[in-house]
């Protein structure tokens, strides 16, 4: 496992190339072999081709003024410095250049762990996949909207019937057999829809069981007449039997 390269304020081009190539453990040896030279000779370090490539990349950027440079950490774009052994590039300039020119490469001496995992770009193929996923999600959303509308209709009908029942109770009257039958059918139908699945196997709601429906009703309407576990269990059972008998 290569050693962790320490961050510096500025680097000689070869120092930056060594770190970029994950060769910091061999930096002392490489610097000794090169001496005052900036670039490894073709016969130097044949076992590390990336060192040659990354050194050439950095020097090419310096020569073409894509990467600011200077001497001993002080920026000064004097072309004569390109052959100076004290030629340096600042950490911040090197990081900005690499993020722009080689966004897929994020060496640890320039980028932190979080930055190394940040998303940097999209290929054409990736964009096409995302667009296809977006269209599929739009279709799913439309299906869910239809399901929600159906649930809303059922809910409104049940609420209306409930209000009628409450009015009858307040008037001291019992609901008619027809009203009771309607009420039970609506309760059973709504419960079946809440716990049912579409033809494709997708759940119509997030409720997985009758107990989950009852718990949610109690949580949303505490201390309400009739909204108790015992009453709801009994009414749901009665409604399902009534619907099945029809």
Outline type: rod-shaped
Taking the sheet with the most strands, its summary is: 4 strands, antiparallel
Oligomer: single chain
Strand order of the largest sheet: 1-4-2-3
Summed up, the domain count is: 2
* Overall mean pLDDT: 85
User: Helix and strand string, N-terminal first?
Assistant: EHHHEEEHHHHHH
User: Structural class per helix/strand content?
Assistant: mainly alpha
Approximately what portion of the residues adopt beta-strand conformation? Answer: under 5%
The percent of residues in helical segments reads: 55-70%
Rg over CA atoms: 36 Å
In total, the number of strands is 4
Distance between the termini: 74 Å
Query: With helices defined by DSSP (H or I, 4 residues minimum), what is the helix count?
Result: 9
Task: Give unreliable regions as ranges.
Answer: none
